[in-house]
Amino acid sequence: MIEIQSVSQRFAASHGTVDAVRDVSLSIARGEIFGIIGKSGAGKSTLVRTLNLLNRPSEGRIVIDGRDMTALAPAELRAARRDIGMIFQHFNLLSSRTVEDNVALPLELAGVPREEIKKRVPPLLELVGLSDYRQRYPAQISGGQKQRVGIARALANQPKLLLSDEATSALDPETTRSILELLRRINRELNLTIVLITHQMEVIKAVCDRVAVMDAGRVIESGNVLDVFREPRHEVTRALIGDVIAQELPRGLLERLRARLAQTQAGAGRDHLFRFAFTGAGVDEPLLSEAVRRFGIDFSILHGQIDEIQGQAFGSLAVLASGEAADVGRATAFFRERGVTIEELNHVL
Ligand SMILES: Nc1ncnc2c1ncn2[C@@H]1O[C@H](COP(=O)(O)OP(=O)(O)OP(=O)(O)O)[C@@H](O)[C@H]1O
């Protein structure tokens, strides 16, 4: 459905130029939720804004449903943009308009007759669960409800594509979950393609089918979400996954752990932080205890989690292993032989 073909975006800046996006090519299929993740400044927003030409790429083409967006005349582009809805981190609602009038705005701008607007807004409010809030003003509703208004507004023109720019970043974890569930539901019910950008792997894990990881303007890794979680290939991806573990550990423990791992990196320590990833059968206590017996290694389990990614159970276990370097090496080879994906996170925590 969407072809991003060799897209680059260069901005003029006070100190010269900034290459915000560098030669990115991606294909996004109809009906999928495609995540783009990266640290702040990686180029995610710039890339996503090229899809509706809020940013016109310096080089490359954006082809949506066979139509080259970069080649459209202004009037054609305005019409094409109606097929693309967008939601934002800070919701961008008009504070002087009620919930229902915010949702009606894109219809008014598209010249839809008043009577028709009156018919089309209530089902949108129903879809996002805000029928009882239609006459409230943005200041009178919660952050999660504001984002629901944003979603209803983005869907008003019945778009084929929804762009989500850090839509849950300003929300608490529980509200985030409910908004992600809503996005999943409308993706399924309306067969709406969603391109979602975030800096949180948790968001990718919760709703995306595929993911592209960006760093310094480039896509450094992309694939099926389960595969990327199971076997991240790039250091930046490992660091983003490592962030999830770091956020869950108590601060004092994290600091002690970092100090111990730094010693190992300096050649004076025996500690290694590993992440085991498994789907279905895989790591369990017998494997760890067998490694203890055979290789004389000590293990402390720091963090464990089982999630469902794309309908499959996926487990990850963060373990601190202490032992002689040669024994640790033999133990990791042993786990890999048993089909366990294991990677060292010493550098990324
Ligand atoms: N209009 C602009 N003019 C000049 N530089 C820009 C412009 N927009 C973005 N940049 C620069 O391009 C780079 C990528 O920015 P972008 O906002 O796309 O990153 P991001 O990954 O979305 O990060 P964040 O999550 O912090 O928004 C940054 O160095 C940014 O300063």
UniProtKB/TrEMBL annotation:
<keyword id="KW-1278">Translocase</keyword>
<dbReference type="InterPro" id="IPR027417">
    <property type="entry name" value="P-loop_NTPase"/>
</dbReference>
<keyword id="KW-1003">Cell membrane</keyword>
<dbReference type="InterPro" id="IPR018449">
    <property type="entry name" value="NIL_domain"/>
</dbReference>
<keyword id="KW-0029">Amino-acid transport</keyword>
<dbReference type="InterPro" id="IPR017871">
    <property type="entry name" value="ABC_transporter-like_CS"/>
</dbReference>
<dbReference type="InterPro" id="IPR050086">
    <property type="entry name" value="MetN_ABC_transporter-like"/>
</dbReference>
<feature type="domain" description="ABC transporter">
    <location>
        <begin position="2"/>
        <end position="241"/>
    </location>
</feature>
<comment type="function">
    <text>Part of the ABC transporter FtsEX involved in cellular division. Important for assembly or stability of the septal ring.</text>
</comment>
<keyword id="KW-0547">Nucleotide-binding</keyword>
<dbReference type="GO" id="GO:0005524">
    <property type="term" value="F:ATP binding"/>
</dbReference>
<keyword id="KW-0813">Transport</keyword>
<dbReference type="Pfam" id="PF00005">
    <property type="entry name" value="ABC_tran"/>
</dbReference>
<keyword id="KW-0067">ATP-binding</keyword>
<protein>
    <recommendedName>
        <fullName>Cell division ATP-binding protein FtsE</fullName>
    </recommendedName>
</protein>
<keyword id="KW-0472">Membrane</keyword>
<dbReference type="Pfam" id="PF09383">
    <property type="entry name" value="NIL"/>
</dbReference>
<dbReference type="InterPro" id="IPR045865">
    <property type="entry name" value="ACT-like_dom_sf"/>
</dbReference>
<comment type="similarity">
    <text>Belongs to the ABC transporter superfamily.</text>
</comment>
<dbReference type="InterPro" id="IPR041701">
    <property type="entry name" value="MetN_ABC"/>
</dbReference>
<dbReference type="InterPro" id="IPR003593">
    <property type="entry name" value="AAA+_ATPase"/>
</dbReference>
<dbReference type="InterPro" id="IPR003439">
    <property type="entry name" value="ABC_transporter-like_ATP-bd"/>
</dbReference>
<dbReference type="GO" id="GO:0016887">
    <property type="term" value="F:ATP hydrolysis activity"/>
</dbReference>
<dbReference type="GO" id="GO:0006865">
    <property type="term" value="P:amino acid transport"/>
</dbReference>
<dbReference type="GO" id="GO:0005886">
    <property type="term" value="C:plasma membrane"/>
</dbReference>
